[in-house]
Design brief:
Elements (H helix, E strand, L loop, with lengths): L1 H32 L2 H27 L14 H30 L7 H28 L2 H26 L6 H29 L6 H12 L6 E10 L2 E10 L5 H15 L5 E10 L1
Parallel strand pairs: 2-3
Antiparallel strand pairs: 1-2
């Protein structure tokens, strides 16, 4: 668990430093060349700095161990801060959409520059590196903050490639594509923000464990011949894992000691599943 928080902290720091660097060069070159796509890309980098900062802060809070006031730890901080990230993406996307539409109507003043090409190449290399780092960490720890960072870096690679295309088209006198790319960037950012928001919202609203994990829990229960029936399975998220409550029916003639021993054994077996944080079994005699 400690490694998970350390790696997420590094991903946040690398994201902040990388995006500050990209923001400066994109804003400078975009302003000088009057490229709406590059300016939109620079604003996206500003949003990325905020997202990386939220990743850093959210991870720091989530890493705090459980205490008397927070018996299940602080894991949900990951989802609260990932929701902040998603909202910032959505707000930025609407501003970019408005600016790009106005530029499309009034006409683009984009001036071709080889500096734009260089910035695009630098951005792609930087973002691919950040994406691969976040993806490797996410596959290992399944952290929504890492997932948000990973998707953000991936989206930026695609966005910058389209920006590069729009710049190259100006050589042939095609200027309107620059504004179209700006519109596309804003829609892409908004879509990503909405998907992250929905995922975070579901966790904060205590969405149940997925059907596959629930089926795995039932399979484990069925290995106990003494269990007459699985009455109920209730779950609630705790960070990236779940607290599970299971109600089982046992023979009413079974001794209290034997029924509690079986319940303890079942709790240990179910808690071995990857997505389970803790299991509590309630016994109903029949």
């Amino acid at each position: 668990m400690e490694d998970k928080f350390k790696i997420t902290k590094k991903a946040g720091i690398y994201g902040i430093l990388g995006n500050i660097f990209l923001l400066v060069i994109k804003a400078l070159v975009g302003y000088l060349s009057r490229s709406q796509a590059m300016i939109a890309d620079s604003v996206n980098s500003a949003g990325d700095i905020f997202a990386s900062l939220m990743t850093f802060i959210g991870n720091k809070i989530a890493s705090v161990p459980k205490d008397k006031d927070h018996n299940l730890g602080h894991g949900k901080a990951e989802y609260i801060f990932s929701m902040f990230i998603s909202l910032s993406m959505i707000i930025v996307s609407f501003k970019l959409l408005y600016d790009s539409i106005i530029t499309l109507i009034k006409g683009s003043e984009l001036k071709f520059s080889w500096f734009l090409i260089i910035v695009c190449i630098i951005t792609v290399i930087t973002k691919i590196s950040l994406y691969l780092y976040a993806k490797k960490a996410y596959k290992k720890y399944n952290n929504i903050l890492l997932e948000a960072s990973m998707k953000d870096h991936r989206n930026d690679c695609v966005v910058t490639l389209f920006t590069l295309v729009s710049i190259l088209l100006t050589i042939f006198g095609i200027y309107w594509f620059d504004s179209i790319v700006g519109i596309g960037i804003s829609i892409w950012i908004c879509y990503t923000g909405i998907t992250i928001f929905i995922e975070s919202y579901n966790i904060l609203m205590d969405i149940s464990v997925d059907d596959k994990t629930k089926a795995d829990i039932l399979d484990i229960c069925h290995t106990y011949a003494e269990i007459k029936k699985v009455e109920d399975i209730i779950s609630t998220p705790v960070g990236d894992k779940y607290l599970v409550f299971i109600t089982i029916n046992l023979d009413g003639n079974m001794s209290t000691f034997s029924s509690h021993k079986l319940a303890d054994s079942l709790e240990k077996d179910v808690s071995k599943l990857d997505k389970i944080y803790k299991t509590i079994v309630h016994v109903e005699p029949i």
